[in-house]
From TrEMBL:
Keywords: GTP-binding, Magnesium, Metal-binding, Nucleotide-binding. GTP binds at G24, L25, D26, G27, A28, G29, K30, S31, G71. This is ARF like GTPase 10. It holds the Pfam family Arf. InterPro entries: Arf-like_GTPase (IPR053254), P-loop_NTPase (IPR027417), Small_GTPase_ARF/SAR (IPR006689). Signal peptide: none annotated. The keyword Cytoplasm does not apply. SMART domains: ARF. The lineage of its organism: Eukaryota, Metazoa, Chordata, Craniata, Vertebrata. GO terms for molecular function: GTP binding; GTPase activity; metal ion binding. It comes from Podarcis muralis. Mg(2+) binds at S31, T49. The keyword Magnesium applies.
Length: 164
């Protein structure tokens, strides 16, 4: 079940429920990351999302509802419909997919233009790829401006055999 909250409100909900919207282009690793967070293990193969995925986490009286909307081109037009209900946007980028990094940046900036106050987390997945070889930071390439950046290392097994 996904918490709906009040439209366009990013304030802390009174019930300690947070909706986290997880977006990114198809193949970026959204489903793999959600699966890993919820089960602490990575699957060898996760099918591409054919619409939506949801998961719920509970810890210390806090409930987080994760909603992933698929990243294929035909589903991206629906992304902005979910922004007003989200408390946080997690945008996943496949940093090894050099051919579509500009598309990812355009899509992210479109979302930020829709709701510039929504808290944003960018996860640059598969970082052994293009960003690393070009010596670029994620925030520089995505043109996010000066931000506080927290670098996290997820297990490399998270992306093994990934297809969705």
């Amino acid at each position: 079940q996904i918490a709906t909250g009040e439209a366009a409100s990013h304030e802390r909900p009174s019930c300690s429920c947070y909706q986290i919207l997880v977006l990114g282009l198809d193949g970026a690793g959204k489903s793999s990351i959600i699966h890993y967070i919820c089960s602490t293990e990575a699957k060898m193969h996760i099918a591409p999302t054919q619409g939506f995925n949801s998961a719920q986490l509970q810890a210390n009286g806090l409930q987080m509802d994760l909603l992933e909307v698929g990243g294929s081109q035909n589903l991206r037009s629906y992304w902005n419909h979910y922004l007003s209900k989200a408390h946080v946007l997690v945008f996943v980028v496949d940093s090894a997919d050099g051919l579509r990094l500009h598309t990812a940046r355009q899509e992210l900036h479109g979302l930020l233009a829709e709701d510039p106050q929504l808290p944003l987390i960018v996860l640059a997945n598969k970082q052994v790829g293009l960003f690393f070889h070009l010596g670029l930071s994620t925030e520089t390439f995505l043109n996010l401006g000066p931000t506080d950046v927290l670098e996290l290392q997820l297990p490399s097994s998270l992306t093994i055999g990934h297809s969705g």
